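Late entry, written up from scratch paper. The run itself happened at the end of the previous shift, but nothing got recorded in the book at the time, so transcribing now.
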Amino acid sequence: MKSTSALALLTAGLTSACAMFSGPGSVSSRPFGVQRDGLPVTAYTLSRGVLEVVVTDHGATLVALSAPDRFGQEADVVFGFDDVSGYESDRNQYFGCTTGRVCNRIKAGRFTLDGYDYALAVNNGPNHLHGGAQRSLDKVRWHAQMTRVDGAPAVVFSYRSPDGEEGYPGNLDVKVTYSLPADDELRIDYEATTDRRTPVNLTNHAYWNLAGQGSKSILDHELRIDADRYTPTDATLIPTGALAPVADTPLDFRAATPIGLHIEKLTGTPALGYDHNYVLRDEGHLRPVATLYHPTSGRELTIATTEPGLQFYSGNFLHGQKGKAGATYAHRSGLCLETQHFPDSVNQPSFPSTILAPGASWRSTTSLHFAVR
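Output as recorded:
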């Protein structure tokens, strides 16, 4: 039998825990399988208002997001898998993960910094993609903490990427916080510090279908992007360094436009559809930059970010792989809207810099607001 003092301490601890998680919404955890390396993986569910969000410590990944349509019917609008084995399989195309150390492409997997030449994995044709091949941020298990941020239910993921991991210089300490600050908003906050100058460019790689994951197409969605320019690329999707106008091109989404309206004009290009970085207006602070709308369900997603760029990818390489609950992810049945610095910035002096120095803190915020109309 526990002593009176031990019971008092236990009661005080439980009271403290309840206080920490008191407030609107909730956060809970459950097992999510075991990685190939034998490490157990956990899924965390955040709930508040109309949203239920599932994230996991494998890759600091967004697994699921359920939101109602105009009739109040819930649907999961994010691609993913039922447990960690799917994320470690060849069916996974970066579904929902935290992507880095440097998201998107680096030309030839090479860059020079402070007089040193660095060679990275070449894992996308002749180029480096999304942080590498073996130990990029989407493939490792992060430390997780359930908490509250300004009263909102949250999960904080943290990871130390050691010096030399995937060829990058410096020990990089990364933190990604998923929180529900409002009944209809998911917020993702990123922070990184280093002990040696190194490139950093983090994003979330969620695939969206506002009709529900497993629905057959995103071509009926309407998209608006607050960008007058984009970064043209070569045949391997590396930016040329130019900034070109979207006016009078299939890339013009300054007004809400059905995604399928002009996409076939891009099918014969190296991008095979939409896979373009947009130069967002009014950078440097958190502001709305894109709106995605599905007319049939009435679901609407508005994205705000502090980042200067947004990669719009129309799921051109999806090929019918199986996902959550047996759903099929067909060609162009999901799309990505990745907030970011520009691709290959480390090799493009005219682009906004991605170099993080010791003593500085790299921060980025993306907010996802859901509505119906």
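Residues 5-372 form a domain with the Beta-galactosidase; Chain A, domain 5 fold (CATH 2.70.98.10).
(Scratch paper discarded after transcription.)
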